[in-house]
Amino acid sequence: MSRVGVLALGPAGVGKTTFCNSIISHMQSIGRRAHIVNLDPAADPKEYEFTIDIRDLISLQDVQEELGLGPNGALIYCFEFLLDNLDWLDEQVGDYNDEYLIFDCPGQIELYNHVPVLPVIVKHLQQQLNFSLCATYLLEAPFIIDRSKFFSGALSAMSAMILLELPHINILSKIDLVKDSVSKRELKRFLNPDPLILADKSNDDDFIDINPRFRKLNKAIANLVDEFGMVQFLPLDCSSKDTSDSVATILSYIDDVTQWSEAQEPKEPKDEAEEEDFEQDY
């Protein structure tokens, strides 16, 4: 049976670990099992312990101390070390067949944009361990709703989509931080964005007016995003009673693209003798 895995991607500080914990909590509440696989060699567990932890193989702190590397260089070294020891990952994954594995990834976006590390891990999980994978890419609402930053966020999400070649769900996290400053109607324009309209709105920015060449650059980038037509977001609010609803919606999308329900083994029907005994008892 195919295994199901979810990659939690996105820049540092967007709430990937909070998202993972929310998914775990929701799945437990509906009777499903899930585990967090930590792929961040600098992370510490928060609400839920890591079932599988890359720090048992190698940690960022040890690499920095022993090799004298900076944070980014040490992170790349850790992942290259993991690639040389994928048998460790195979052993750790073990027999998690009918349970979700949620891979909490680091926040350095170069891993999703141009460093060919995660694609190798993804292909290994798919081809060698028979995983059905889905990538979730998180961006925080205060970052996206600033129109001048929208395009960089959209491009980083698109870059991850192209590099990983996985079913991809974009998530707008920390919705609670913009509820009081942005109307629901305005927020919807960013959940299902029209990049060309946003590019026109950017013309109101003083910086764009002073530098016309940047206006042309924004329009060129907006056209690129529009041609792909794949950048949409699902809202995630982990701060209120709406948490369960938003997490349930996201999980339903993940189940759909990973075909989780179709991968479940059918229950064995009762044989006729058992059914007859049951009817006689009642």
Automatic annotation (TrEMBL):
Keyword tags: GTP-binding, Hydrolase, Nucleotide-binding
Pfam families: ATP_bind_1
CDD domains attached to this UniProt entry: GPN3
Molecular function terms from GO: GTP binding; GTPase activity
Chain spans, region Disordered: 261-282
Oligomer status and interactors: Binds to RNA polymerase II (RNAPII).
Family assignment from sequence similarity: Belongs to the GPN-loop GTPase family.
Name listed for the protein in its UniProt record: GPN-loop GTPase 3
Organism: Kuraishia capsulata CBS 1993
